[in-house]
Amino acid sequence: MQLASFLEDPQYQDQYSLHTEIIKTFGRVGPNAEPRFRDEFVIPHLHKLALVNNLQIVDSKRLDIATHLFEAYSALSCCFISEDLMVNHFLPGLRCLRIDMEHLSPEHEVILTSMIKECEQKVENKTVQEPQG
Questions:
Q1: Alpha-carbon gap, residue 86 to 41, rounded angstroms
Q2: Best CA proximity match to 63, nearest among 29, 71, 35, 127
Q3: Domains in the chain: boundaries
């Protein structure tokens, strides 16, 4: 997949404008994308972009990317997300995003904390409901 190799290419790792457009695109197409593409590509790459954004030293860029990530995660939170994907990519991405928002946008941080609790509750409920054996 060309987009995957493009996202993994080290020469594009610090491309603020590119990351912004990719995140905005993921937020728009992710909820309506084929579930396999969303699960295997969109959500894991949003997680990676959230991790990278934690390292951004320019606050204005960090906030801009974080705001787009927030919008993308909000859109994707309405989709079915498997427990494995929730635990390994969606929740860790939200937690990275919350780190950014704690300092840059406290009003978003409050919403993210609520989203994280809701996702954790879904995982806990699923674990409790699964039959042992």
A1: 14
A2: 71
A3: 16-129
